Amino acid sequence: MTPLLQVNRLTKMYGPRIGCKDVSFDLYPGEVMGIVGESGSGKSTLLNAMAGHHAPDRGEVIFDTRTEGPRDTLKMSEPERRMLGRTDWAFVHQHARDGLRMSVSAGGNIGERLMAVGDRHYGEIRAQAADWLGRVEIAETRIDDRPSAFSGGMQQRLQIARNLVTAPRLVFMDEPTGGLDVSVQARLLDLLRGLVREMGLSAIIVTHDLAVVRLLADRLMVMKDGHVVESGLTDQVLDDPQHAYTQLLVSSVLQV
Amino acid sequence: MIELENVSKSFTLHNQGSAVIPVMEQVNLQVTAGQCVGLVGASGAGKSTLMRLIYGNYLAASGRIMVGGLDVAQAEPRQIIALRRETLGYVSQFLRVVPRVPALDVVAEPLLAVGTTQEKARDKAVSLLTELNIPERLWSLSPTTFSGGEQQRVNIARGFAYDYPALLLDEPTASLDAQNRATVLRLIEGAKARGAAIIGIFHDEAARNQVCDSFVDVSIFSPQVAA
Prior knowledge:
The complex is a heterodimer of chains A (256) and B (227).
Chain A: E1 5-14, E2 17-27, E3 32-36, H1 43-50, E4 58-65, E5 69-72, H2 78-86, E6 89-92, H3 96-99, H4 106-116, H5 122-135, H6 152-164, E7 170-174, H7 182-199, E8 202-206, H8 210-216, E9 219-224, E10 227-233, H9 234-239, H10 244-251
Parallel strand pairs in A: 3-8, 3-9, 6-7, 7-8
Antiparallel strand pairs in A: 1-2, 1-4, 4-5, 9-10
Chain B: E1 2-13, E2 19-31, E3 36-40, H1 47-55, E4 62-67, E5 70-71, H2 77-86, E6 88-91, H3 103-113, H4 118-131, H5 148-161, E7 166-170, H6 178-193, E8 197-201, H7 205-211, E9 214-217, H8 223-226
Parallel strand pairs in B: 3-8, 3-9, 6-7, 7-8
Antiparallel strand pairs in B: 1-2, 1-4, 4-5
């Protein structure tokens, strides 16, 4: 089986400081990988470098494209990469405001991504938008409301709907449940798990919440100071951590 | 079906003066299809540790852990995940679930994961929950709010929803009343009859003697004895 994404020695420096260094891994179709580490460990830097939001200094991010097979996305032209970002890739931001158009209706936010890939039939676009609002548990009657009138949890769900409507194959998520209260988090986690299974998505989830990765991720990568210190099966890393830092991380979690 | 060869396990506690604690050495164990092996030994002897090694939660220090042709000690995460989906089931002592997911879906999930239709998976979940005396009014609720015994039974129903060729059972009859205990033992016997290889931990001696074909005392694997 060809990996969906192959990351080879990806490095991003901020001047003399390390953002992330020599990160390599393969992600297979249908796999969900969590990246954990304390703030400043380089996990968001890595995610943004993979997603093409900022240029890394070194390394490869090879994606198995639908038409041409594996290609290094860092060597793609800007229009090619943007097309990928609208079709097979999706990016869920920590703050829904960064991923939504706040002045456009909820339906418009979902429909925009469909139009970007060529859909033109208004009725169909609206029907799909309504369907997706239902899937993320937002009442269809809110379709013409702007996201600024939504609660934080609803905005986050709308962002997820907007991202998944084009059936991407790879989703990058940056702290998708951060800043939401726990009852909303649980709902979102349940929703994400269902979508991952139904759609066969692959996902890379950055979070500092070990409970979130335990529920969502098949495998885990632990980062510290820009380096990957440990990786493996999620429950193996959490139940039997090998590296000193992971042991500290796991033993620092408060029991509820 | 399950075969362990010279497996050893130690824990290194980096944050406590890098203490190395050897817990198991020279583990050799074999379970064939249709056979149930009971793990015995005092509390702390390493029964659950051995199960976690086989399930891949714990990383073996050395040796081979073959389950259905895959060496768990060396396998990639995605191989272990496929193994857990299709081959190896585990009923742990504690149920870990996503909040808000109804009990019925918790039980049906392993079947959906292998591609069973929604309808069939639901039917199977309904029959297992009924068999294990979980009242129908609880099916649509998340098991997080259930009593300990109810959670345990949901956990068992989930473990037996799909017909795994190999099963690990950690205290499946603990905290169950006589009637439910009999149901669980019947499920175990049914699994054996269809050819599942089973490793179980049972503190309940009568249950142990009823379903196990042989016993392994795990204290013989503890390093103090070997030394």
